[in-house]
Amino acid sequence: MRSYEQAAPLLDSYAAQGGTCLDTAFVYGQGLCETVVGQWLRKNSSVPVLVGKGAHPPRCDPESVAEELSVSLDRLGVDRIDIYLVHRDNPQVPVSEWVEALEAQVAAGRISAYGGSNWSTTRLRAVNAYARAAAAAGFVALSNHFSLAQMAEPLYPGCVAFDEDDVVTLGQSGVALLPWASQARGFFSDTDPGLLDPNMRRCWDTERNRQRRRRAEATATATGTRTINIALAFVLAQPASMFPVIGPRTETELRVALKALDVELSPDVVRWLVRDGGIHHAHLGNEAGP
């Protein structure tokens, strides 16, 4: 969002429709996003759950956490961020140093809990193993990419995606998942994938994803909804504590996205959407599954 005037109606609409969580980061819009959210928060009595992020490259180190968090709190006009995520991993840094830096902010009352964004599941397990031994909380949340369309190439350097096996494993661990680009940045919109901007095509326009899009289209037709709602419903149907991050730019896009909350996909349909092979419409029925 380029200004408070542009963002406020969208944030108002989100809150009016029951939205209770906002995701932002130190680097978004070179600080403008946090500033705009802070302006909006100051004019609203109900403060949503805030998810913040910091320590993005080139300052991806534990020493940056306290400094960037101070700036974020000032921009947002709050004393504490509910969940603070390390925006990228730096594998050269021992997990002990990350945990100690984040625990210091919990002890100071400046964050309530912490996690990672674009961290491998291997590093997450290492973080939480160290945290258990140190009687610390560890990562309670992980925000990587996950959607019905698999990310063929990283959207930006250092971006990490969940796969279906990761979701199952993390679901069993109790770590909350906050998948970003959960609608694959418009890949499931009404726009032909071939007409998306080159960066989007580079990341998601593969034959496998086009097949998944066709299955989502067939499911949407059979259930009387939209393809993009099926894509988001697929994420919500995963066997984990899923809190998909969406990025609507207009109130219309927001309303469309929230309709996915009314779509329930059976386990058979969820499996069918990602199955390799041709589409057999005779299998669709009312649930678009075998």
From TrEMBL:
InterPro entries: AKR_Detox_Biosynth, NAD(P)_OxRdtase_dom_sf, NADP_OxRdtase_dom. SUPFAM superfamilies: NAD(P)-linked oxidoreductase (SSF51430). Residues 3-270 form the NADP-dependent oxidoreductase domain. GO terms for molecular function: oxidoreductase activity. Keywords: Oxidoreductase. GO terms for cellular component: cytosol. Pfam families: Aldo_ket_red (PF00248). PANTHER family: NAD(P)-LINKED OXIDOREDUCTASE SUPERFAMILY PROTEIN, NADH-SPECIFIC METHYLGLYOXAL REDUCTASE-RELATED. This is Aryl-alcohol dehydrogenase-like predicted oxidoreductase.
